User: What shape does this take?
Amino acid sequence: MSANFSGIRSVIPPVNEPIKSYAPGSPEKASLKARLASMAGETIDIPLIIGGREIRTGDLGRAVMPHKHGHVLATFHHARPKDVTAAIAAAQAAKAEWASWPWEDRAAVFLKAADLLATSWRDTLNAATMLNQSKTVYQSEIDAACELIDFWRYNVAFGADIMREQPVSTTAMWNQTDYRPLEGFIYAVSPFNFTAIGGNLTTTPALMGNTVLWKPAGTAMLGAYYTMKLLEAAGLPPGVINFVPGDPVMVSQIAMNAPDLGGIHFTGSTGVFQGMWDHVGTNIRRYRSYPRLVGETGGKDFIMVHPSADPQEVAVAMVRGAYEYQGQKCSAASRVYVPKSLWPSVRDRAVGMMREITMGDTRDFRNFMSAVIDKKAFTKIAGYISHAKRHAKIIQGGGSNGRVGYFIEPTLVQTDNPGYKLLCEEIFGPVLTAHVYADSKFADMLQVVDQTSPYALTGSIFAKDRAVIRQASAALRNAAGNFYINDKPTGATVGQQPFGGARASGTNDKAGSKLNLLRWVSARSIKETYNPPKDFTYPFMGEE
Ligand code: NAD
Assistant: This one.
C-alpha cells in the first residue's frame, strides 16, 4: 500500500466521558426512552459477520430480557465449525493490509467509534445493555457508554506513548523499536456482564495491528452485535474483527487448535480460562509462536472494616458494592468483615437501605436493581441462599422469584465461621456475607481476608486511623489487584484505576492501560550502523 501521510501526528490527551444523569425531564432521558421502546418493539435477526459478510446458519439462539424472559429481543445464528475456520481465514487475510497501516490510521477508526458512541449510537448501546443484560440506566451508562468511550480514547493515547518509546542512538548508529503486531490472529472471548469489555477485548489488539476472532457471550448478544455494527460504521475494514457467536466449546477448540493462534484475550470465569490455558499448554508444539494468554477472571471481593470506620460509609459501600447490577460485577463486594463494636450500627443501616431497594424492569428508571442474567445463574445463586438458610443466618432478603424475570432479592448473610462456603466461593449474584470479629483481632482478620479465597481481584479497607490503613495495605498487598481505601471495591474508571487482579483472578494485564496494549505487540529491535567496520581485528591484538 502506498503512503497516505507524512508527519508525526499528535493525539489529544483524553478525558473521561461525563456520565449523563437521565434525570426526570432531561433530553437524554426522553431520547433513551424512545430507543428502549423501539428496540423492545422489534425482534432483530443477528448474523455472524465474517470478513465483512453476514452469514446466517439457521441454527438459532434467542436474546431475551432477563427481567421478562418471555420477551425475545433478537434471534442470533450459531456458527458451524466451517464458519469458525472461515473466520480464522478472514482474520488472516485482513492482517497484512491492516498491520501495514500507520498506527494513527487504525487509531482514527477507534476515535471515530468513540465519537459515534458519545453521540448518535449512545442510546442504541445503552438500550441494548438495559434490555438484554438487565442493567439500570446508570449501570448501563457507566458501562456501555462511558467506559467503552474511555477505552477507545485512552487506548489511543496509551498507544501513542508506546510508539514514542524508542531506544537511545549515537551519532554512529540509529536504534529503533518496531512495535509489530503478534503473528497470527487473536481469539477474543467476552463475558455477559459488561458491554464495554467485549468492545475492549477486540479493539485493543486491533489497535496494535492484530486481527481478531470474537466470540461474544450468548447471554449478551444484543450489545455485542451493536458494538460490531458501530465499529463498522466507524470504518473498521472487513475481517479485522470477525463476529462469531456459537457454542463456546466448539468455537474455542477450533480457534485454539489453529497453528496461527497468536493470543487469547479473555474475560470470564476462572475455570474457563484455566481450561483454555490447559488446552494451549497441551498444544504448545502446534503453534507458530507462543500464544499470549491474557485473562481477567473471577473474584471474591472484600470490604475490611476497622473499628475506627464510619458505620454509615461502610453500610453505603456494602449496599452499592454488593447489590448494584445484582452483584454481577467481577468486582462486587461479596464478603465483609465487621468489628463487633460496629456491627449493630452497620447492620441496621445496611438493612434500612436494603428495605428501600426497588427491583424490576430496567425501563422503569425508579428501579435500583433488576434481574440476574439467566436461569442457570438464578438457580446457582438461589442454591447459595438456601445453603445459607441452613448453615448461617439470613439478616435480610433471601427471596427469589423466577416466574416473569430472574429476580433475586438483595441478601445479607451473617456467619460466625470465617471459612464458611459463602465467604470463599464466587457467587456472582446479590449476596453479601458478613463475618463479625472481636475488635482486638483486627490483625488476625487481615490474614484471614488474605487467605480465605484463591482470588485477588478487588477489596477495600474502611478506617480513619492512617496507621491502620498502612497496616492493611501492607497485609493485603497481594489480596487485591485493585485496592480501595474508604471506598466500595467496585466502579474502576479507565485511566484512573487500571483494572485487573492476580492469583486466580487473572493475569493482571490491566484493561485500559499501557500494560495491556503491550501484550499485543512483539517488539523488533533494529540497529542501523552508518559506517560498518572494514577490518575484523581489534586494537588490543597489536603487541607493545
Ligand atoms: P463465563 O466464563 O461463563 O463466560 C465467559 C465467556 O467464555 C463467554 O463468552 C462464554 O460463552 C465463554 N465460555 C463459557 N464456557 C466456555 C468453555 N468451556 N470454553 C470456552 N469458552 C467458554 O463467564 P460469564 O458468566 O460470562 O461472566 C462472569 C465471570 O466473569 C465471573 O467469574 C466474573 O468474575 C468474570 N469477570 C471478570 C472480570 C475481570 O475483569 N476480572 C470482568 C468481568 C467478568
Observations:
- Residues 315 and 348 are 9 Å apart (CA to CA).
- Residues 189-194, 197, 215, 217-218, 248-249, 252, 267-269, 272, 275, 296-299, 330, 426, 428, 457, 499, 501, 505-506 surround nicotinamide-adenine-dinucleotide (CB under 6 Å).
- The mean pLDDT is 98.
